[in-house]
Design brief:
By secondary structure, the chain is an all-alpha fold. It has one domain. Helix content is about 60%, strand content about 0%.
């Protein structure tokens, strides 16, 4: 029988954070929280460094460039 156990475990840190911090106080805060939790969860699943990504994203924003991709890097071996 299929379950959503994996999905529930993935969102658990966000639920615990929300309970400890009493949630957000604005729409902008909610949007930031949604996005940062998505980024952190995605990077952890890919075994990538969260801080490295955030530094790169902030540098890109400062230079008016697009944020680095959250898609996993695929390498194709040349034959």
């Amino acid at each position: 029988e299929p379950t959503n156990n994996l999905a529930e475990r993935l969102i658990r840190p966000g639920v615990l954070w929300r309970k400890r911090s009493f949630g957000t106080q604005s729409q902008a805060g909610s949007l930031f929280t949604e996005r940062i939790m998505t980024v952190v969860t995605t990077l952890k699943q890919q075994r990538r460094h969260v801080l490295d990504y955030l530094v790169d994203a902030c540098e890109a924003a400062n230079w008016g460039k697009p944020a680095p991709s959250l898609l996993p890097v695929c390498t194709v071996l040349a034959e």
